[in-house]
Design goal:
By secondary structure, this protein is an alpha+beta fold. The chain has one domain: Thrombin, subunit H, CATH 2.40.10. The protein contains 1 helix and 7 strands; from the N terminus they run βββββββα. A 6-stranded antiparallel β-barrel has the order 2-3-4-7-6-5. The termini are close together. The N terminus is likely disordered.
Amino acid sequence: MKAHPSERRRHPRVKKELALKVATDGYDFSTQTKDLSCIGAYCYVDKFIPPMTKLSVKLMLPAETFENNSTQKVQCKGVVVRTDACPPGGFNIAIFFNQISVRSKDKISQYVNRLLTQINCAL
């Protein structure tokens, strides 16, 4: 997925489904990302989570995209910045990673950049 020339994002984003666990106020949701960058994710949930809700996020990045072939675990805190109703039910939420270590951010960035390189090489 080559970045469009008019893309204004500072951090590349890739459309990829990865298992994602989010938790808030005693509720745990297992879902999949629709897209991912080193500063956030977009995913589907079946219950309404209002904007500005704080979340705990857990994500496992696949091993095959890293030089050492090991699965990379990322844990961080995030906040819901957008909630979109999804007919016929459920919601898409945009999560901004507001508390993420430099190491975790680098892991996601490395993953996204490797995927974009693979996609661009295949074009």
